[in-house]
Design goal:
The protein has 306 residues and is an alpha/beta fold. The chain is 35% helix and 26% strand. It folds into 2 domains: 167 residues, no CATH class; 133 residues, NAD(P)-binding Rossmann-like Domain (Rossmann fold, 3-Layer(aba) Sandwich), CATH 3.40.50.720.
């Protein structure tokens, strides 16, 4: 849901209807991320996706059908949707589908700030009659079970007869701008660390993602494309990313610095270059490990001073 917060907030400010859906139960036992969400706008517009898009067509048809109230919906992934999305068929997947206006107004600012939240949706049958929002400062006011789920420090969801409790914890995102073996190794290490890794060679995609970054997110620039890496680094240095690194020999760093200065960015105090702790790394895999270690060290230091 963190990924769609900016777009949903814009819809709310513009008075455009947006129905938000997220997965709360899978009877087949497959793991899922409760923070994954999709927003449906009038005419079938879609922001985000659920289960690789396998449920999106059904959700588009159901959006708005419940009027002003949200619903707990149980949906199936049939053979056609499974084939298109590349996932297995499944039955009885439970989703919440609710108009964004019926969710607590402060939710989207919390998500934009990448703050952990807890939503408690009260049910009458399959109808959502109210949803309460709790944050780190107010979770003590929630019920004991919600406090226990929140204290685990990871996204989770629990469905009972009368409530759906959804805890959303932000995951660190590592944006890798460029390609090659270092990028591939960084992506693999990120998965082991539970980070959301995004690899791109598209400057527009990179700057768009960076616009929503917070202190727990990182940007690493690779390669000799000064336009690509320069635009990404300029956006990162102007934003809130907690770690910003660049890989390459000294002459490449000097060229990047010249590009940045020419385009109006002269304060490079937050830029780590060359990125990575000094562990004597030589291979692409070792370089990726040194970068990941420096990111962890930076995050740990920031948490200690927060």
């Amino acid at each position: 849901m963190f990924a769609i917060a900016l777009s949903v907030g814009a819809c709310l400010r513009a008075g455009t209807r947006a129905d938000v859906a997220w997965l709360v139960d899978r009877p087949d036992g497959q793991r899922f991320d409760p923070a994954e969400a999709v927003a449906i706008t009038p005419g079938g517009g879609r922001i985000g996706q659920l289960v690789s898009g396998a449920l999106d067509g059904q959700l588009i048809e159901l959006a708005g059908v419940g009027g002003a109230q949200g619903r707990l919906r149980r949906l199936d992934i049939g053979p056609a949707d499974a084939a298109v999305s590349g996932v297995a068929t499944a039955s009885g997947l439970a989703c919440i589908l609710v108009p964004a206006t019926e969710l607590p107004s402060g939710l989207w600012d919390n998500l934009l700030g990448r703050e952990p939240v807890c939503l408690i949706s009260e049910l009458e049958g399959d109808t959502i009659v109210a949803t309460s929002l709790f944050t780190s400062t107010s979770i003590a006011e929630a019920n004991d079970r919600a406090q226990q789920l929140f204290a685990k420090g990871s996204s989770a969801v629990e469905v009972t007869e009368h409530t759906v409790t959804t805890v959303l914890w932000p995951r660190s995102t590592l944006l890798i701008v460029g390609g090659g073996e270092v990028a591939e190794s960084l992506e693999k290490i990120s998965q082991l660390l539970g980070w959301n890794a995004v690899v791109t060679r598209n400057a527009g995609e990179a700057t768009g993602l960076i616009a929503g970054f917070a202190a727990l997110d990182s940007v690493v620039a690779l390669g000799h494309d000064l336009e690509l890496t320069g635009r990404a680094l300029a956006a990162a240095l102007a934003g809130d990313a907690g770690y910003i690194g660049a890989v390459g020999p000294r002459h490449l760093h000097e060229s990047r610095a010249d590009w940045l200065a020419y385009n109006g960015t002269t304060d490079l105090s937050r830029l780590r270059g060359p990125a990575g702790l000094d562990i004597g790394a030589r291979s692409p895999q070792e370089i990726a490990l040194s970068i990941a270690a420096e990111i962890v060290a930076t995050q740990t230091a920031a948490e200690a001073t927060a």
